[in-house]
Amino acid sequence: MTRTYFRPAGLVYGPDAALAINEGRGASLGGISATAYTLVERIERHEGGNISRRFETGRLPRATALAPFLDASRPLVMGIVNVTPDSFSDGGLSFDAGRAIAHGEQLIREGADILDVGGESTRPGSEGVPEDEELRRVIPVIAALAQAGHRVSVDTRKARVMRAALAAGAELVNDVSALTFDPEAMAAMAEASCPVILMHAQGDPKTMQLNPRYDDVALDVYDWLAARIAACEAAGIARARLIADPGIGFGKNFRHNLDVMRQFALYHGLGVPLLVGLSRKAFIGALTGEKVAGQRINGSVGGALWAALNGAHILRVHDVKATVEALAVVRAAVAPDESGL
Ligand code: 7PJ
């Protein structure tokens, strides 16, 4: 059986996007008003593994509908609030509710739209955290930040933590296992009504970087995410609630990450909004030579801009100020008189 994929290409921005759409030569990329694609790469994956590619002036079979909290004119910036003692990039600096809350407030002042609060490090090689400990870490932080009026997401793989976080005021659930880790997570989300972020990973955090393998990483990740979206819909989680994320660094070697990044626009074919998290990851360090995760700001911002120009709806970052400032410059260059991108 041949499987067919369509990757948006020939991207144009701002007034060019408006013109291309008006002339019927382009369509909005992922529902983002400031970006249009004018070509699609038709990718056919044949039985036995052969892949053929050609450009066409076509449209994606499915357009993306934006959830109300998203912004059609620009990507939202999700600031990372770690409440873990072993998080690799901030050394557990916020392992303490008070400090995590202050850090979240700081990220809001810097321009974050969403705060992603996590109590379990899922970086390569890390061990899981007992449920009670995870709850003890994240719930007070979520409650305080939500109470202060901020939009909070919870980064967890556990149904009980999801439920408690929503009860404490979280508005989104971000699961790096795409509801596969905890057998109850799917039901917990079917009962809720919040947006759910489904991230691709191969293997579990402890072993995922040992020897990741794919036939074609970009397409394999696409198939996996499409299957998770279908499974969620079948379990009663409406498609309109889902956000997909290719999971940079999760069971992917350097080359895998580059392949996924280059073809990021492919994932718009899933027909749901997209999130990317590449902030400070090893892949950025490998490209820049910066060994200290906390010093990988410049490379991370470069990656975030690439994702933004490829229609990402949410950028998950540690360095909110740097990202927001860089986005402002790209946005002005793309559409000086508008508020696009
Ligand atoms: C991601 C995440 C990511 C989503 C982490 C780190 C590791 N959630 N949680 N996407 N990464 N959705 O921040 O380096 O890429 S934890």
Characterization of this structure:
- With 341 residues, this protein is of the alpha/beta class.
- It has 10 helices and 12 strands.
- Strands 10-9-8-7-6-5-12-11 form an 8-stranded parallel beta sheet. Strands 1, 2, 3 and 4 form a 4-stranded antiparallel beta sheet that branches.
- Helix 2 (97-109) crosses helix 3 (131-147), helix 3 packs parallel to helix 4 and helix 9 (297-309) packs across helix 10.
- The chain is globular and about 55 Å long.
- The N and C termini lie far apart (39 Å).
- The protein binds ligand 7PJ.
What average pLDDT do the residues reach?
A: 94
The helix fraction, in percent, is: 25-40%
Give the termini distance in whole angstroms. Answer: 39 Å
Strand order in the sheet with the most strands: 10-9-8-7-6-5-12-11
Structural class: alpha/beta
Count, helices: 10
User: What general outline do the C-alpha atoms trace?
Assistant: globular
Round the Cα radius of gyration to an integer and report it. Answer: 19 Å
Main sheet characteristics: 8 strands, parallel
Uncertain parts: none
Associated small molecules? ligand 7PJ
Extended strand count: 12
Which strand-content bin applies to the residues? 15-25%
- Give the SSE string: EHEEEEHEHEHEHEHEHEHHEH
Secondary structure elements and pairings:
Blueprint: E1 3-13, H1 14-22, E2 27-29, E3 32-45, E4 51-56, E5 76-82, H2 97-109, E6 114-118, H3 131-147, E7 152-155, H4 159-167, E8 172-175, H5 185-191, E9 196-199, H6 217-234, E10 242-245, H7 254-262, E11 275-277, H8 282-288, H9 297-309, E12 314-317, H10 320-334
Parallel strand pairs: 5-6, 5-12, 6-7, 7-8, 8-9, 9-10, 11-12
Antiparallel strand pairs: 1-3, 2-3, 3-4
Helix pairs in contact: 2-3, 3-4, 4-5, 9-10
